[in-house]
């Protein structure tokens, strides 16, 4: 077969010039040295990893080395790295990148990560891998630097996007790639148009909900691998199929995706200890909760909406501030709100004003003092976050806030402050992803998200590689509220908090519950009586347990074959 | 490269570049850079520019390299050098850059007798087989510019004899019949012929992988009448990823005037 062969013409031209000009000529010792070192460094095999030799201080774990080998040798450098949270996907990606750079197959690299992780990625690549990655701060960086780390939100904006789309990247890494599951978004389109010779998509939750999502993710990496959109839709849509059920699809996906589970890695993880703390409302708090429970009005002012009732109930379990904020927004939607609507809101607002204390906050304060160590508090609500910061401050406890909306520098700074100076970090949901806090081992769930996956992500921030102590998780729930229902009737029944990370993902996918949050809202909100709700919840939890047993059964069956 | 090799390598490099070795302990090494080597390694063009403009006294850096971190005395401050450390690879690159072209004469004991030296052209090359993977082969060849004879593993021979940059007394060089330019062409052809007989299944397999991905790509976009830009980008990317290529890069080379070197 015909293979293109190129020679080094520049060297020859220079050499002839030297002959004409009679030198200057190199030193003989250096000449010999150059030959010897070249012979030493020649990589004479297509196979095998060079990177570990170049990184004697790195000490990668066996599963990380195996991932790197597999991506280079079996997947031709295009893969979805989908290890469960905390198994070191960054290390895997770094090893693969390093390997290609050592072999001279990769020079120009683009790394797109959440804003909060930009600095950390650049730092790790530089210190752990000796890869001179720079963070994007000026637009000329795209051209002048070979390895650039940036947030996707910066990269997709003009003028950056135009410059980037004109570069020939040898290697593109995208962290938290599950955000690209929707092919209608600007981010998706942007990544689709990048020239990607080699490409890694990193995600801990590749198959949260729908089969289409994995289709879009794979198509970004390897268009056509799962067929085209039309055929895929015909084949898999509407049949209630899930990835797990379809052996063929599963196999196809597995040729471009690697997923290690904690259990497979044989790493000894620190334990997870879970404590549920049930809190009783004070009188005024109870009055507020009762008031919002009567609040059966749609946010457009008419009709009945269990959604807004539930939202307010959940907020009332968190803080009166959260309730106040939502009511204010509801009211602000109208220039002339209906009279009945205003009356209803004002009634609740009055209860907000009458609320004298926050029993959960008091409990949290007591707990933080007892722990006497770093603590992370997670809340769903920004208003609660602000309140807690103020409240802790009043009681002599320093804290820093953390939100998804913070700029990169601010996130880094907050993390740094928390690590070095303050005792408490208060994070909202958006802050749950993309920040590693393994130096802390106490986590308070001040209120509970209604999506168990999000709980996993919260816990994953601290229960990851590098965590040396047992992780303590404190779940707050208020007695006789929706919160307690969810906690007692579902989360505890399915042993959510004791599960190893990632298990749940599998189970939910198996069950084909597309959106568990909506489902729960439906169960809790639409049930006519507490009895009905309990039955529905029981059904759900036995379903989950059943799926769990099926999964364990799978494992046993598989083990039986080998 | 073992740690001892690295130590030896550094000493040779700095001595060859006329830097004084201030301390040569077996676990570390302190070097006084010359101005040239400071410019080569320290990456501080503004300092040197400023100094030259103001006429200040140049103060090239002193560097300490710790080549055996475990056994080096604790009070020694310096850069830890190990295989993979950026500094070592910078120095390796610098070695190659500074030692690209050479001309040497064999320094033979003559006892006053006249010695004729044959001109040889030497090339040391790295041949890279590249697709989505890559491997390299090192080759050292020499061409007798009078007889046209070509010798493999040429470096083995030149490493074993005494060479000098100035033509020694009582030695004279024979004029080449093959000019260096056509000599380069002959060697290039020779090197290519050498690996043409190689097993190139690697390239066939790469083309297979390439075609496979191309087929998927066509399938993915086959519904749209007009192919979108991303289709063409992706096609280009696949070419960059898989297309098998062989590249011959020259590490270094030069002219060697040698006495009666015969291979057979």
TrEMBL record, chain A:
PROSITE patterns: HELICASE_ATP_BIND_1 (PS51192), HELICASE_CTER (PS51194)
GO molecular function, one term: ATP binding
Annotated SMART domains: DEXDc, HELICc
Keywords: ATP-binding, Helicase, Hydrolase, Nucleotide-binding
Residue span(s) of domain Helicase ATP-binding: 70-224
InterPro entries to which the protein is assigned, alphabetical: DEXDc_RapA, Helicase_ATP-bd, Helicase_C-like, P-loop_NTPase, SNF2-like_sf, SNF2/RAD54-like_C, SNF2_N
SUPFAM superfamilies membership: P-loop containing nucleoside triphosphate hydrolases (SSF52540)
Pfam families, per the entry: Helicase_C (PF00271), SNF2-rel_dom (PF00176)
Residue stretches making up the Helicase C-terminal domain: 363-512
Name of the protein described by the UniProt record: DEAD/DEAH box helicase
Organism, scientific name: Peribacillus asahii
Lineage per the UniProt record: Bacteria, Bacillati, Bacillota, Bacilli, Bacillales
TrEMBL record, chain B:
InterPro entries xrefs: YqhG (IPR024562)
Organism listed in the record: Peribacillus asahii
Name of this protein: YqhG
